[in-house]
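Sequence in, structure out. First:
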Amino acid sequence: MAKYNVLFVLGGPGAGKGTQCDLIVKNYDYKHLSAGDLLREERQRAGSQFGEEIEGHIRAGTIVPVEITCSLLQRAMEDSGKKNFLIDGFPRNKDNLDGWNKAMDGVATVRRVLFFDCREDVCVDRCLNRGKTSGRSDDNMESLKKRIHTYNNSTMPIIDHYKALDLVSHLHAEKTPDEVFDDVKKVLDELKL
């Protein structure tokens, strides 16, 4: 039996994944792990075994090997003292999914995929508004077009994979954060983790 329960949190840029993860953590016994945040932290950690390699990939604009990402996720799970995790922004593509299945077999079980489905125009508006105050360098029109293209081509097949396994909760994310969270609560209350 796997030690950890995982909910993957997927949706396009601006779909509200971070907002909903914050609400879940406040109301349920989950730890939120962002693959991107873990990579950025590891890159800056003194004495990191992966820091230079991560830095090289980020500088070159290439994807960090999935084994590194899974290793960081597993370490964060072990260090947290928790059993239930929200993993945000991962898996992003088939390579991520295959790497996860190989590295985390017997360690973590994906119990559900929370799919925050939001129209592209709403996502773009949210990101552009967030970009005015967030300091995020990727909340601009040029970056958003690339991020949405990547999401449509690489991440949607991951959602389809989990739909075939009947593990996807389809959440309509155009609503207000509180309305979306009401739908999320129904899913989590049914899971009883």
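Second:
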Amino acid sequence: MEEHDTPGETEDGKQKENESTEKQSDTAGGGEASGKAAEETTARYNRLKLFDKVIQKSLNRFIENASFKVFSSKFRPLYKENVKRMEEIHNQFTVVLQKSIQEDIIKLMEEGKIESKFQELDKLENEAKDNPEPAWRPSGVPEQDFCSFLMPYYQKQKAYMKLELKKIQAENAALAERVRAGREKIAQTEQCISTDVDEWNAKVIDFERVTSSLNPVDFFDE
């Protein structure tokens, strides 16, 4: 006898198959999404490699334009005389030309600090992600755009000048306090000197009075 599946068992089997299929598709979709995100991140932060690739591609196109056909057309008599020698000259010319251009490109990249500029660009991009405010866009009115561009700068300068003014005022107050304390000390010193002089004068007067009362002339006459 043949065994037949019940309707309930058949529906459960179909449901399980659908769930497994959905899980597989979700896993594949998640893998594709994560792969795309990784590719986008890699592409975003490999500006230097992209720049090198573009430069190399442009250099290759430039070298291709200097083909043997174009090169030989400029030296037709030599080409007719010795084709093999002309090919050797062309190969040597392209090698030297490519090497010279690459050296100039490397020198320009070092002088222009291209790698550090790309790093600064990455930094600005990361800062822009964390900034919830929309990026600045021109309004179409040059006066307003100019003011909106300069106003934050002037506000920063104003805040900086206020801070510097407070520092200078605090320094001036400290100097004024030191000057006042110095003047008080000078006044006290002058007062002490004046008191000492008065005491000295009083002692001198007393001494003169005592010496005058002794009358040394009468003493010697006796």
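Remark: DSSP finds eight helices and no strands in the chain.
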